[in-house]
Amino acid sequence: MIEELIRLDKELFLYLNGLGTTPWDAFWMYLSRTLSFVTIPIYAGLLYLSFKAFGLKRTGLVIIAVALLITATDQLSNFFKYGLGRLRPCYEVDMIPLMRLVKGYCGGKFSFFSAHAANSVALAAFFSFVLRTRFKALPFFLLGWALFVSYSRIYIGVHYPLDVITGIAIGLLFGWVFAKLYIFAQLKIKA
Hints:
Elements: H1 2-18, H2 22-32, H3 39-84, H4 115-131, H5 138-155, H6 161-190
Helix pairs in contact: 2-5, 3-4, 3-6, 4-5, 4-6, 5-6
């Protein structure tokens, strides 16, 4: 059963990765960067919206929650990557001639699960949960952005779809949990 799932994952990867075209490569590489002229304004905007919604003291709590959230998702991803040892597509000899590696280098050796997907979705989910009552359209924008970042990992050739889907699921779970913890802590500060 696992072998069949891995085979299907590889086939889906080759299909999705093969949809890429040279004119779009720079866009998807840029979107995949952790810090860029796209992500920095998004992070700054979220900080501003948090300040506007919660004030200075609770925005400090948001910063702490986000730092812990990213640390948790990132370290869990590393735990799984080194624990399971699934190679990235760009390190698998049978995949290399069939795929498009857009990135100039492959990155770390292991792929399961995508920290980029987990971190971007966790941030999107966290802010969607804590700011959704004040900024109704924000969740749609943030989750759309996070899904684009997640897909970029397949496009550029460094993650399989299952790596990305798992990262998205972990990000949603952790974003929700940390939002609940933040809301609980916020109520304690209020009292």
